[in-house]
């Protein structure tokens, strides 16, 4: 390792000019930053930190970042509030995020507290049964947890029903046999209620909207009135027959007219006298 000898500062005073002790007399420039100042003070921890870590500490200390993440804040929220990239906050928040995920996992194995005491089923089993009974997908849920100011955990369950996003919150108390969870809001109380007849955030029925471009219904025409282009033309019906003429009366049917001599002699046409 070559040793350098300090010559002086540059014009702006932000860099130290050094040169080597060998015959080459190479010149070097060293920037003055917090790590160099920490090394001059003998602070080994600060001297090993990167520039991004020091920048985050000047805005928000690692303990403060972890405390806010443990209380429910997200990495994106802290990064936006501090005005730094997400990657610079994520490295401090990662251990706490794992702690929150572990607390949510333990809470799903706890037993919901009902009016008559803790339930036999776990929170995960109860919620799954409730969602399936209401026609929802239990695999589309998301669990999260954070620690409150009283050091107790709040567990959040998020799920989707149609196009609406829903959340339910529980208070988790670790203990024997997995601990217990109590409902914190109405959505949570409906989920752990054994009476599944009540709908959980029912979705209102959407009225049927008619398309204005939809063609109007065509009135059906009787089949007899619509000609079939694939069938033989119907033969015209025969004209009704004219009425038969009245039969002519035969001359024999007409009454016989007596002769004059029969009238004078008083003899009928049949030859008998009256």
TrEMBL record:
Transmembrane segments: none
Pfam families: DUF3071
InterPro entries noted in UniProt: DUF3071 (IPR021421), SepH-like (IPR047682)
Biased composition, class Pro residues, residue ranges: 236-246
Region Disordered, residue ranges: 224-257
Domain DUF3071 positions: 1-172
Descriptive protein name: DUF3071 domain-containing protein
Organism listed in the record: Mycolicibacterium porcinum
Gene: sepH
